[in-house]
Amino acid sequence: MEEKPGEKHVIELDDAVEREGLEHLTRIEQDLETIKERTPSPRRAFLLGILQGAGALVGGIVALVIFGWVLSLLGIIPGFTRIVSALQDATAHFRH
C-alpha cells in the first residue's frame, strides 16, 4: 500500500491522542479510588446520619429550653417557671 503524503503525521497524531486519553483515564481512575476511600460504607453512612439527626434533635431541645428559660427570666412567659420547676422535681425524683 502506498503511503500518502501526511499520512505518517496522522498516525503519529492518533498515537499522541491515544496516549493522552490513556493518561486522562488513569487520572480519572486514581480520582475515583480517592473518592471511594473517602466515602464511608452505606452502614456507616446510615449510622452517622442517625447520630447527626439525634444530635440535631437534642441540640434543638436544649436551645428551646434555654430560650424559654431566658424568656421566663424576662417575664415574657410567666407560666414557664412552673413547668421548669415541675421538670426539675421530676428529674430530682429519678436521681434518687
Report the portion of residues in β strands.
under 5%
The separation of the N and C termini measures 100 Å
Secondary-structure element string? HHH
- The geometry reads as rod-shaped
- Count helical runs: 3
- How is the biggest beta sheet arranged? none
Tally of DSSP β-strands:
0
In the predicted model, the low-confidence regions spanning at least 5 consecutive residues are: none
Radius of gyration (Å): 33 Å
Count of discrete domains: 2
Helix-strand category: mainly alpha
- What is the arithmetic mean of pLDDT? 81
Name the quaternary structure: single chain
Secondary structure: helix percent? over 70%
Please render the helix and strand layout as text.
Layout: H1 7-38, H2 42-74, H3 80-95
Give an overview of the whole structure:
There is one protein chain. By secondary structure, the protein is an all-alpha fold. The protein is built from three helices and no strands. The chain has two domains: 1-39; 43-96. It has helices at 7-38, 42-74, 80-95. The termini are far apart. 0% of the residues are buried.
